[in-house]
Specification:
This protein is α+β, with helices and mostly antiparallel strands and 291 residues long. It is built from 10 helices and 11 strands. Catalyzes the phosphorylation of the position 2 hydroxy group of 4-diphosphocytidyl-2C-methyl-D-erythritol.
């Protein structure tokens, strides 16, 4: 009904390995990367309004046409035409420029929310098609399932890659440019290790020797604190640690809860935005009417 308020959450992701295979003529890069979700979420509340309006509680992120939520609204409007205007309020908790996909995740949720509220009847595959122009990472966020992304990130094989361990993720408060991270890395068309085999067959104890993020080197040269934080995760007892995506956030995977909790508290004391995700976490992709 016209006065309904709709609520939903938009989740962060981390990358489990990231191979940069080739620089393409478009300037984008062919990659393969595993992705799973964190219990780190932005909260959306949406209701009808006289005109489209976006409100976010993060003054560092513009709410003008450059915002990926507004780009998603514009894309959907162009594709099928929206019947109404909405006020979209976002309680933003996922840091931007962190390699956590916060903006991409917001764009995907916006498409799913408006599809549901306006009863547009678009399938996931149609939403995935529409989402491609919004960003390389946006299609991944349409289904809410972990998996391996290839191509520029649009070709997704959904697999259950959600680790059954604790994940501690920390953002050292320095935004990393995705474009720069890719521009400064050296593609390797023949990676030494088979990413899918590692993620689905290798014991996690082996990951630190064979699971790499090819964007780390160039980012750690510019943002040293991220490299130091990766070392710190191992010092805290992580079984595996890596920068996520184009950074600058770093995550550690821990097999014992008290070791993870100790790392989480230690990093929080540094005043960095830090997240603790429990074993086997699955995002709630539901869209609900607020009671
Ligand atoms: C690095 C990754 C890993 O998951 O995520 P984040 O670190 O951004 O979370 C993704 O590849 C980022 O996806 P996304 O953030 O949607 O990238 P886009 O906005 O489409 O592209 C931003 C810029 O990154 C570069 N880019 C992006 C993806 C890709 N496969 N090759 C690239 O070279 C291009 O210079 C592009 O102009
Ligand atoms: N709704 C949004 N949330 C977060 N970042 C956004 C949003 N809209 C646009 N942006 C811009 O996108 C960039 C970060 O996008 P994001 O997907 O969070 O990248 P990353 O995964 O690298 O952190 C920043 O430059 C930010 O200003």
């Amino acid at each position: 009904m016209a006065n309904d308020v709709w609520i939903a959450d938009s989740y962060a992701k981390i990358n489990l390995g990231l191979h940069v295979l080739e620089r393409l003529p478009t300037g984008y890069h062919a990659i393969e990367t595993g992705m799973c979700f964190l219990e780190w979420r932005d909260h959306f509340e949406v209701k009808r309004a006289p005109e489209m309006k976006l409100e976010m509680n993060d003054e560092n992120i513009p709410t003008d046409d450059s915002n990926l939520i507004n780009k998603a609204i514009e894309t959907l409007n162009r594709y099928i035409g929206l019947q109404h205007n909405y006020l979209i309020r976002v309680d933003k908790r996922i840091p931007a420029g962190a390699g956590l996909g916060g903006g991409s995740s917001n764009a995907a949720l916006t498409l799913r929310l408006l599809n549901k509220i306006e009863e547009l009847g678009l399938t996931d595959d149609e939403l995935i098609d529409i989402s491609r122009d919004l960003g390389a990472d946006v299609p991944f966020f349409i289904k809410g399932k972990s998996g391996i992304a290839k191509g520029i990130g649009h070709e997704i094989e959904h697999l259950d890659l959600q680790p059954d361990f604790w994940i501690v993720t920390c953002f050292p408060n320095e935004q990393s440019s995705t474009a720069e991270a890719y521009q400064n890395c050296v593609p390797d068309p023949e990676p030494e290790f088979d990413l899918k085999k590692i993620l689905t067959e290798e014991d996690i104890d082996e990951w630190q020797f064979i699971l790499n993020n090819d964007l780390e080197k160039s980012v750690f040269q510019r943002i040293n604190v991220s490299g130091n934080m990766k070392d710190q995760m191992y010092e805290f007892g992580a079984t595996y640690a890596s920068m996520t995506g184009s950074g600058s956030a770093v995550y550690g995977i821990f097999e014992q809860d008290f070791v993870a909790t100790n790392a989480y508290k230690g990093l929080l004391e540094l005043d960095f935005p830090t997240n603790l995700t429990r074993p086997g976490f699955e995002p709630d992709y539901g869209i609900y009417r607020k009671a």
